[in-house]
Amino acid sequence: MLEPGNNNELPPIPGKRYFTIGEVSELCGVKPHVLRYWEQEFPQLKPVKRRGNRRYYQRQDVLIIRQIRNLLYDQGFTIGGARQQLTGDAAKFDVNQSQQIVKQMRIELEEILKILRR
Question: Which of 7, 41, 57, 73 registers the highest number of CB atoms within 10 A of its CB?
Answer without folding.
Answer: 57
